């Protein structure tokens, strides 16, 4: 839900709708204010002009000073002269007052307005709202007539008028209704325009997203069609240039990697023949070393040890080359896993060095490649003996995966100093050796990499961790149930680590 609300389409539509709403409301408010002012101003000017003209016309017809009957007749006469039938008039002369409507309290007239009329000589007006009804109240003093303005003076007669503004309020209400009705189509139009704009903007964005995902999946020949010359077109053009450069760089790296693999494979293959001869010679020299003088015997043993290491390195390189070339085949067989692990330890003289926790014979069986399982266990145990600390523990047990399938778990734990955090991500890298986390390796640096490849070939996983009580532990998880295929072939160029 939150992801949908944060999408670019929704944000564009909301932005357009907000802009349209603000523009519509602002325009409507300004229009309403101006129209309302115009309506009320026109009504006000008309009423004041009519009122002033009516008063000036009728005053000379009445005696002065007036009596109450005169004031009552005067007020009634003015009220009858209005353009509507709703004029209410109050005439005041000193303590006398009379209204056009009998017993009219004239509540709309405020003391402040009355004081302004009493003390001034100009017409005063104000709008008053009572009981949700708006009225215009006008007050004016009657002055004596003279030839000159200076001769005019207050007569003491004050006349007040109240006119309901029902008609004007109707005009204003109609205007508000019209503005409200215009707002809905404006918002609908804004949303429609927003959807069209979003569609135009999001189309190249979606294309860019699909192209980026395609690049991430390895299809480096993906390109975008460039339309127009706007910013999105520039972005598409830049993406195409970047993709082309990336494709070229990756192709070059793959050519270099393939060349390096071929070189390693060729060198390893070419070294096997002379190494075989050297190994044969060193075997003979080892048998005769006891009869040689000390210096010569030491040199012979050194040559024999280094020849053995070189042979192991060449064999490891050949194995890695087969993985990289996709030529490593998996030959499955139904075997007793515990018995296979015991044979691995016994063949290398580790049966009494490594502490084991293995099931009874025949309890745990599975379809694995016996030779590759031997390599996995031998490499992990050798790594623990060389770089960890005694005692070393080998444990085998069975578990179920998330789908209920059978899995074999092999754990090899040592009692050394463990693996440093900076080294942990690289323990299965090829040729990686650490001088700080553990003692310096005398091997090729390929043992754990070969282990990871063999485990992956089985469809399993291998991971390294540190135990809370100290030391490192390597855990291998292998599925015990495979299809009926006779073998599985490694994919080329995969995985320097688990």
UniProtKB/TrEMBL annotation:
<keyword id="KW-0418">Kinase</keyword>
<dbReference type="GO" id="GO:0000155">
    <property type="term" value="F:phosphorelay sensor kinase activity"/>
</dbReference>
<dbReference type="InterPro" id="IPR005467">
    <property type="entry name" value="His_kinase_dom"/>
</dbReference>
<keyword id="KW-0547">Nucleotide-binding</keyword>
<keyword id="KW-0472">Membrane</keyword>
<dbReference type="InterPro" id="IPR003660">
    <property type="entry name" value="HAMP_dom"/>
</dbReference>
<dbReference type="Pfam" id="PF00512">
    <property type="entry name" value="HisKA"/>
</dbReference>
<feature type="domain" description="HAMP">
    <location>
        <begin position="199"/>
        <end position="251"/>
    </location>
</feature>
<keyword id="KW-0597">Phosphoprotein</keyword>
<dbReference type="InterPro" id="IPR036890">
    <property type="entry name" value="HATPase_C_sf"/>
</dbReference>
<keyword id="KW-0808">Transferase</keyword>
<keyword id="KW-0812">Transmembrane</keyword>
<keyword id="KW-1003">Cell membrane</keyword>
<dbReference type="InterPro" id="IPR036097">
    <property type="entry name" value="HisK_dim/P_sf"/>
</dbReference>
<dbReference type="InterPro" id="IPR004358">
    <property type="entry name" value="Sig_transdc_His_kin-like_C"/>
</dbReference>
<feature type="domain" description="Histidine kinase">
    <location>
        <begin position="266"/>
        <end position="482"/>
    </location>
</feature>
<dbReference type="GO" id="GO:0005886">
    <property type="term" value="C:plasma membrane"/>
</dbReference>
<dbReference type="Pfam" id="PF02518">
    <property type="entry name" value="HATPase_c"/>
</dbReference>
<dbReference type="InterPro" id="IPR003661">
    <property type="entry name" value="HisK_dim/P_dom"/>
</dbReference>
<dbReference type="GO" id="GO:0005524">
    <property type="term" value="F:ATP binding"/>
</dbReference>
<keyword id="KW-1133">Transmembrane helix</keyword>
<dbReference type="InterPro" id="IPR003594">
    <property type="entry name" value="HATPase_dom"/>
</dbReference>
<protein>
    <recommendedName>
        <fullName>histidine kinase</fullName>
        <ecNumber>2.7.13.3</ecNumber>
    </recommendedName>
</protein>
<keyword id="KW-0902">Two-component regulatory system</keyword>
<dbReference type="Pfam" id="PF00672">
    <property type="entry name" value="HAMP"/>
</dbReference>
<keyword id="KW-0067">ATP-binding</keyword>
